[in-house]
Amino acid sequence: MENSEKLTNSKEVIAYIAERFPKCFTVEGEAKPLKIGIFQDLAERLTDDPKVSKTQLRTALRQYTSSWRYLHGVKAGANRVDLDGNDCGVLEQEHVDHAKQALEESKAKVRARRKEQAEAKAAASKDGEAKAKKIRPKTAKPKNTQQKTTKLNKKPAETTRALTADEVVVGKNVSVNLGNGNMPATIVEINKDDVRVRLSNGLTMVVKAEHLRS
């Protein structure tokens, strides 16, 4: 039952047919050019084999004949072989040229892909460095924050001046100098040098005109 387990991928199929037909297929080294129409021969030989299907054989054969080692083997003067290793004629030049072109194109694709991957890796590395540079300055901002906070906490100095005689009139809004600060008030009565004012809290008091500020 172990030998009848179905193969799951082309690599296993190639290894299997190389084991069944060692004079035709190989899993390493330069491969021999295959007889034209060898798929039909292979399908007939393995018709009753439960391990592989025709679809698997076709896919595996396509992969085998497009490999670099197979294309290397398709060269001038080489003979095609059948499943038993018998010669089936010399390769035609057009087939040799086609294999050479296919090999060059395949190698070019691999080089382009490797170059693209290298460029992508380099770009990703540069992006990472750029992001790291942008992030680093953010860790050194406490000093700036403290300076800004200090500036914001400073209150602008209050600028006041003493009232002139003409400015001391009933109804005028003034500031009363109480020694430890100025309080807003309104003049409600004038009696020579004494001036009665109403503070913003509703209280009234008598002060000298010289204590009033604009």
TrEMBL record:
Residue ranges for the region (Disordered) are: 113-159
Q: Which residues form the ProQ/FinO domain?
A: 5-119
Where do transmembrane segments lie in this chain?
none
Known Pfam families for this protein? ProQ (PF04352), ProQ_C (PF17516)
Q: Which domain of life is it from?
A: Bacteria
Write down the InterPro entries for this protein, in alphabetical order: ProQ, ProQ/FinO, ProQ/FinO_sf, ProQ_C
Mind listing the UniProt keywords for this protein, alphabetically? Chaperone, Cytoplasm, RNA-binding
Basic and acidic residues compositional bias, start-end: 115-132
Keyword RNA-binding on entry: yes
Member of which family? Answer: Belongs to the ProQ family.
Q: What does this protein do?
A: RNA chaperone with significant RNA binding, RNA strand exchange and RNA duplexing activities.
Name recorded for this polypeptide: RNA chaperone ProQ
The species this protein was found in = Photobacterium pectinilyticum
Q: What is the lineage of its organism?
A: Bacteria, Pseudomonadati, Pseudomonadota, Gammaproteobacteria, Vibrionales
